[in-house]
Amino acid sequence: MPTSTAFVRRAEPSEYDGVAELTARVYVSEGYASSGYEDALRQVASRDRSAQVLVALVDGAVAGAVTVATRGGEWAEQAVPGEAVIRMLVVDPAVRGSGTGAALVRACIERAREDGCGVVRLSTDPSMTTAHRLYERIGFARTPSYDWEPLPGLRLLGYALALLPWCDQCGEALSPEGHDRCRRMAELDPPRWCAQCRRRMVVQVTPTGWTAKCVEHGVRSSS
Ligand SMILES: [Zn+2]
Ligand SMILES: [Zn+2]
Question: Fewest CB atoms less than 10 Å from the CB: which of 74, 91, 138, 212?
Answer without folding.
Answer: 74
